[in-house]
């Protein structure tokens, strides 16, 4: 109710942040759709890293692969890196002698060996004085040929293109690739594939390329330096080339062929894009750039042997017996630098050597387990941004700010758990972050609308109720903005209905001064309203000279019935002062304003009712109707403060009351008693009131029993009491006279029908 009161004056203020947030939601949705497959979404990728740590891949890290790492011990035995490729050839031969299923050299060989006789000879030939010595060096056997000779006896691969020329995880890196002459690869009927481009750094020795398959060793990290995905197929000089990981997996499967399954509906100028790769019986989903998303097991430690163990008698090292490295048997051996000598690779699970990264990716290829981010994920997430953002806005309209924020947080947690469940049980990578941001934006937009119009609206609220609510309630409004205080409630309240009346003869006397009469009533009403507010009640100005006062609202009060009676006595005192001022003026001397008051208590609906300047704090309910009825009865019983039974029961021990009558009302099953509030506790304890009260009680007892003679005697006694000149006794005198003449009606219970 309170939220709607001032919606029209401040509607544009509330709509402004909603429009801004709607635009922001649209931007987020479009950004989510556009960057659905981009590796630059750091928060999304880091969330996926966290999912991977919570639910790592099944199984051991590496079962079919073994690392031979060139470490500090090996360098101490051979000499500083880089080594001549004749030493690398010795490592290949030692691995073969140990029973390796295949050997992969992960250090790039597409550049001249800086320690080969050929390279040294070229240096001397180009600048040295001893040309004879240079020519003799150039005639020595080439180290590349020595390495090629080592690979002729074992299936293997050598690394090339250590650094790709562009980001391979973007489709802009595609190159047209002819697959017709690649015996190890079939492309399910597609002659040309769109693959990420790689190139030789310099060139590779033809004999070495014939003996060992060139495999791309590039490991492209994301913009934050973390390796999360690696392409498995490359375009090398417009021909397909495997990555180190794919070639190692091929060798582990017995030199199995690879089938590239293309997307039937996806093609570009460069050729068909790949949907998945099939190696033997394993089909592995990949992105359109053929990238495999790394999914690491709980333990990423791979079996490792120092290269020094395979160096048989090199540079004075002790000879190693062939076959003395049984840990290499039936495995694919990957030879490379360790993390001390080479640059480590950062992954979601820590830093490892490049050779270990290739081995882990190869093991994942064989397992066939790879989380995928389907193409429809971006559309679903963009739609979720708009739906959840709209839901948050609509929900926040009905909730307080912290409730809306809590709702957004709860739904965000549910989204996060749902995304984690999709990863853990379906290997699907869904991003809950954009919908979660939309939820909070939606909730905060409503808060923003409230904040922008809040101060002005609260000032308007306080201004509307400044002459209506008591100071404690206004203080709460100033401090808490009234968000809870001015909510409509159903509550037990005490209603005081009062009306200013001027006798007909006084009105006739001043009929030539209408402006004076209206100003007089307005000033008297203002004075009464202020008296009600000072007494702790909420004042409600009705038509004419009528006012209502509500106690126990908006602030709760346990003794609201007592507060209503005290306020009525203060109103009488205030009216006495007004009449004294009237009598002191020559223009209004002799004019008297009478005050009729009715007090009732009961459950009512109470709260602000209206809009803008016409807003008022009011109540609706039986107690309001009953107080109005009692106020109207004062015209019959004489100027009096008339209360209902409930007010009397709750306050008769504190105030002085006289029972007026017992009436039969429509809608009531039994007669109800009316009571006149006579005065404060001092009057109640006075000797004169006690005498009047005793005589009045005897009068009512005799009257209701039908003994009119005894009632007449009690009436005379009551009328002789001090302060007994009231209209009530004239009413009973007339009733006793009629019943004495006509007799008491049959079934008489002392009750009269209202209005008779």
From TrEMBL:
Residue ranges annotated as transmembrane are: 376-394, 401-425, 437-456
Domain Guanylate cyclase stretches: 494-631
Where are the coiled-coil regions? none
Sorted keywords for this record are: ATP-binding, Membrane, Nucleotide-binding, Transmembrane, Transmembrane helix
Instruction: Tell me one Pfam family matched here.
Output: CHASE2
Q: Which domain of life is it from?
A: Bacteria
Tell me the InterPro entries matching this sequence.
A/G_cyclase, CHASE2, Nucleotide_cyclase
Q: What is this protein called?
A: CHASE2 domain-containing protein
Species this chain originates from: Hyphococcus aureus
């Amino acid at each position: 109710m309170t939220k709607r009161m001032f919606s029209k004056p401040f509607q544009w203020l509330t709509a402004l942040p909603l429009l801004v947030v709607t635009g922001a939601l649209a931007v987020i949705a479009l950004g989510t759709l556009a960057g659905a497959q981009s590796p630059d979404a750091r928060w999304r990728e880091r969330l996926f890293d966290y999912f991977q740590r919570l639910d790592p891949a099944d199984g051991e890290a590496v079962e079919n692969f073994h690392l031979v790492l060139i470490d500090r011990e090996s360098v101490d035995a051979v000499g500083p890196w880089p080594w001549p490729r004749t030493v690398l050839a010795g490592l290949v031969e030692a691995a073969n002698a140990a029973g390796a299923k295949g050997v992969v050299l992960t250090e790039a060989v597409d550049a001249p060996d800086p320690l080969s006789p050929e390279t040294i000879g070229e240096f001397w030939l180009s600048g040295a004085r001893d040309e004879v010595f240079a020519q003799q060096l150039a005639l020595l056997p080439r180290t590349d040929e020595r390495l090629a000779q080592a690979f002729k006896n074992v299936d293997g691969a050598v690394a090339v293109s250590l650094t790709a020329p562009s980001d391979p995880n973007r489709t802009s890196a595609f190159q047209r690739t002819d697959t017709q002459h690649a015996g190890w690869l079939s492309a399910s009927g597609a002659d040309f594939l769109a693959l990420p481009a790689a190139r030789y750094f310099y060139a590779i020795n033809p004999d070495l390329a014939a003996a060992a398959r060139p495999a791309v060793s590039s490991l492209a990290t994301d913009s934050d330096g973390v390796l999360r995905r690696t392409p498995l197929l490359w375009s090398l000089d417009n021909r397909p080339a495997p990555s180190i990981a794919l070639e190692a997996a091929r060798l582990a499967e017995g030199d199995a062929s690879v089938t590239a399954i293309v997307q039937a509906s996806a093609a570009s100028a460069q050729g068909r894009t790949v949907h998945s790769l099939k190696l033997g019986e394993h089909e592995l989903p990949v992105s359109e750039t053929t990238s495999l998303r790394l999914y690491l097991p709980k333990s990423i430690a791979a079996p490792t042997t120092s290269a020094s163990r395979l160096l048989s008698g090199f540079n004075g090292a002790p000879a190693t017996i062939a076959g003395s490295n049984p840990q290499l048997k039936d495995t694919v051996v990957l030879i490379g630098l360790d993390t001390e000598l080479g640059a480590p690779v950062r992954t979601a699970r820590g830093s490892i050597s490049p050779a270990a990264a290739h081995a882990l990716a190869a093991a994942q290829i064989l397992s066939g387990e790879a989380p995928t981010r389907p193409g429809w994920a971006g559309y679903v997430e963009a739609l979720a941004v708009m739906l959840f953002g709209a839901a948050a806005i609509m929900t926040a309209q009905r909730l307080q700010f912290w409730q809306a924020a809590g709702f957004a947080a709860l739904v965000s947690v549910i989204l996060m758990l749902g995304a984690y469940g999709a990863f853990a049980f379906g290997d699907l990578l869904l991003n809950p972050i954009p919908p979660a941001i939309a939820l909070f934006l939606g909730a905060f937009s409503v808060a923003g609308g409230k904040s922008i119009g809040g101060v002005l609206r609260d000032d308007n609220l306080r201004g509307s109720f400044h002459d209506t609510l008591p100071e404690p309630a206004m203080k709460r409004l100033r401090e808490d903005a009234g968000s809870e205080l001015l909510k409509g409630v159903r509550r037990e309240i005490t209603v005081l209905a009062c009306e200013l009346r001027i006798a007909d003869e006084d009105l006739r006397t001043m009929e030539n001064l209408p402006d004076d009469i209206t100003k007089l009533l307005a000033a008297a009403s203002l004075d009464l309203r202020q008296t009600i507010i000072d007494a702790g009640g909420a004042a409600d100005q009705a038509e004419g000279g009528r006012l209502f006062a509500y106690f126990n609202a908006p602030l709760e009060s346990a003794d609201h019935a007592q507060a209503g009676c005290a306020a009525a006595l203060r109103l009488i005192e205030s009216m006495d002062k007004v009449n004294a001022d009237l009598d002191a003026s020559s223009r209004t001397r002799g004019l008297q304003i009478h005050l009729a008051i009715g007090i009732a208590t009961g459950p009512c609906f109470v709260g602000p009712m209206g809009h803008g300047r016409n807003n008022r704090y009011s109540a609706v309910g039986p107690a309001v109707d009953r107080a109005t009825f009692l106020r109207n009865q004062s015209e019959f019983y004489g100027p009096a403060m008339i209360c209902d039974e409930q007010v009397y029961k709750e306050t008769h021990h504190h105030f002085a009351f006289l029972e007026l009558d017992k009436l039969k009302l429509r809608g009531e099953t039994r007669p109800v008693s009316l009571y006149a509030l006579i005065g404060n506790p001092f009057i109640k304890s006075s000797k004169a009131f006690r005498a009047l009260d005793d005589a009045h009680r005897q009068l009512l007892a005799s009257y209701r029993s039908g003994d009119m003679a005894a009632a007449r005697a009690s009436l005379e006694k009551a009328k002789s009491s001090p302060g007994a000149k009231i209209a009530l006794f004239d009413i009973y005198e007339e009733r006793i006279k009629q019943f004495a003449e006509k007799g008491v009606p049959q079934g008489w219970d002392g009750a009269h029908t209202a209005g008779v």
